[in-house]
Design a protein that fits this description.
The chain is built from 10 helices and 14 strands. Helix 1 crosses helix 5 and helix 2 packs across helix 9. The protein is α/β, with parallel strands linked by helices. The chain starts with 12 loop residues before the first strand and ends with a helix. Bound molecules: threonylcarbamoyladenylate and magnesium ion (MG). Threonylcarbamoyladenylate (TXA) binds next to strand 5, strand 6, strand 10 and helix 8.
Length: 326
């Protein structure tokens, strides 16, 4: 892994202008975490194509689980390079992008977004934000930027730079200050893979506005309006087909082993989350290695114990779901 820029003890706040954008883009491309204003709320951005950077972002937020993240891009063309456009998606893009609308699309075959940023799903959430300075920043980076709201897990979404600092000081590289955000609540999320839009989260674009362009919107019964962070948890997260056995301290020869640290011997196939016991590296590898082991000709996947600290919580949360009876 390349060494990312270290986090300063006190995270600087710089006004969002041409020179600072270039510096921030450089930090982000090097694997850093940069908070920036969008028209909805401040996002905590990282290089969406860099799994280790995405892992550091989850660690900085202290999220106890891997929620899939929105990839931010500067243009509609860039959005459709990572997610497959349907006629519905093109219609929505024409009417609402740039703007506070996120579309869930099927991943393009060559979509460079890291597995960890989509929580292993074969879909990707994309958005073209409305602010010119945010799009200038994204254009300077030249890669999709994964950005959840720039607050520690469990806190409310920040709408100015001071709120970001109060929540994440010392845990991120830089905060770009663009004053208070205009919309103040998160983007509306629609699944645009089918013929009619499916509402995953209400937000900055109203349902009336959307319906006036697309006709009726489907609202899955499962969407909990009280819990706007829930939709990602409700979608069918990637789960391996094979049974999963956790906390393995020995392994049999009909099993595939997902190791952490020094691998147990005797398995038919082995992949290692991190030989050095590094939880950031382990998080970045998690979904890819589960998929690899799932394709082996073995009876089940045995997983070695992962410490339940830091990112280990999120890793264990995901593995526990994978191991739950289905
Ligand atoms: O306005 C916003 O959307 C802000 C700004 C920074 O852009 N971002 C934001 O991100 O609110 P976050 O991470 O707090 O919320 C992202 C939501 C989550 O509820 C997640 O479950 C959902 O998007 N999501 C992401 N990818 C998804 C996917 N492939 N399928 C379904 N839901 C997805
Ligand atoms: Mg949030």
């Amino acid at each position: 892994m390349t060494t990312p820029p270290p986090f300063p003890d006190s995270t600087p706040i710089l006004p969002i202008n041409g020179r600072n954008l270039a510096y921030a883009a450089h930090l982000l491309r090097a694997g850093g975490l940069v908070a920036f204003p969008t028209e909805t709320v401040y996002g905590l951005g990282c290089d969406a194509t860099n799994g280790a950077a995405v892992a550091r972002l989850y660690a900085a937020k202290g999220r106890p689980h891997f929620n899939p993240l929105i990839s931010h891009v500067p243009t509609v063309e860039a959005a459709f390079r990572i997610g497959k456009p349907t006629p519905l998606a093109r219609l929505l893009a024409e009417n609402f992008w740039p703007g506070p609308l996120t579309l869930v699309l099927e991943r393009q075959p060559d979509c460079p977004v890291a597995d960890l940023a989509t929580a292993g799903l074969d879909s990707v959430a994309v958005r073209v934000p409305a602010r010119d300075d945010a799009r200038d920043f994204l254009a300077a980076i030249g890669r999709p930027v994964a950005a959840p709201s720039a607050n520690a897990s469990g806190q409310i979404s920040p709408t100015d730079a001071e709120a970001v600092k109060a929540s994440l000081d010392g845990r991120i590289s830089l905060i770009l200050d663009g004053g208070a955000t205009a919309v103040g609540l998160e983007s509306t999320i629609l699944d645009a893979r089918g013929e009619t839009p499916v509402l995953l989260r209400p937000g900055g674009v109203s349902l009336e506005e959307i319906a006036s362009v697309t006709g009726p919107i489907t609202r899955p019964a499962k969407v909990d309006q009280q819990a706007p962070d829930a939709p990602g948890m409700l979608t069918s997260h990637y789960a391996p087909c094979k049974p999963v056995r956790l906390n393995a301290t020995e392994v049999s020869e009909d099993e595939a082993l997902l190791a952490f640290g020094k691998p147990l011997s005797g398995a038919a196939a082995v992949e290692n989350l991190s030989r050095d016991g590094d939880l950031i590296e382990a998080a970045a590898n998690l979904f890819r290695l589960l998929r690899l082991l799932d394709r082996t000709e073995t009876a089940r996947i045995a997983v070695m114990p992962i410490p339940d600290t830091g990112l280990g919580h999120a890793i264990n949360d995901r593995l526990t779901r994978a191991a739950a009876p289905r």
